[in-house]
Specification:
Distance between the termini: 60 Å
CATH topology: Formate dehydrogenase/DMSO reductase fold
CATH class: Mainly Alpha
Number of strands: 2
Number of helices: 13
Number of domains: 1
Shape: globular
Largest sheet: 2 strands, antiparallel
Order of helices and strands: HHHHHHHHHHHEEHH
Oligomer: single chain
Helix content: over 70%
Structural class: mainly alpha
CATH architecture: Up-down Bundle
Strand content: under 5%
Length: about 325
Amino acid sequence: MALHDVWFTLIAVLWIGYFFLEGFDFGVGILTKLLARDRPERRVLINTIGPVWDGNEVWLLTAGGATFAAFPEWYATLFSGFYLPLLIILVSLIVRGVAFEYRSKRDDEKWQTNWEHAIFWSSLVPALLWGVAFGNIVHGVKIDQNHEYAGTFFDLLNPYALLGGLVTLTLFTFHGAVFTALKTVGDIRERARKLALQVGIATAVLALVFLVWTQFDGGDAASLVALVVAVLALLGALGANQIGREGWAFALSGVTIVAAVAMLFLTLFPNVMPSTLDDAWSLTVSNASSSSYTLTIMTWCAGIATPVVLLYQGWTYWVFRKRIGTQHLAEAAH
């Protein structure tokens, strides 16, 4: 396998890891308005992801950096053509991080309410726009002979991409709901399970339409296998959620995300950004990649650093594995 194929695979793995981990982050942020009934319950939700949300975002930084180094043509076309939506995502992530840190700095109701609004919207907007962005990448955009984006912002708001945005929004919300059921105790846990069922049914309908559309648009046998795995895992997550097996429900909702994102990259390969103007103008793993020497150095660095990062993040999740509830907030106050 050529090194540019290896790095396409590694970048796909980084995006899969990001959506798996940040997906429930976004979902929990959205649930602060949909599930929590009062400020203590919102604090419980925020505390479930408090120790891990910033570590989850490392996957995004790594994916962006790897794309810049391994496929500079892809990076340049993507970030210039998708400048406005990616800027909105970036601003949302900045606001979200600040909101997590600043919310508890003052014991003032208005202060905390405003930051809680910020957490909700800065979780919802990226959850929607990431699906729109990847929908356009897979479906293809207007790229000219100079490998530059020749469309407008409104060209990105096509039916396929918007459907992709709704899929990621509902899927991440479902992922967050089953994570909440896994990490909490008491009434909020039961309500999270009920909400997960409602959101999960909507997710199943939207995801099935989107993935089947993707398969007919440019899929092959490998992407079809990923589609089947995604659908079966989602149905399994719904079933596990119903019988109170939150661990299995969370694992299977994660498999759904992994299989769905893998399907998108399998459909995309060997392109990295297809052109809807002319197939010959598409960016591919070969014409958009860095030199072999650059990719070799990157491979050695990744081989050394990646196991360390994975071990550290796995240790973090193990340390903060216990369930929490509003009663724990009262205990911490004494």
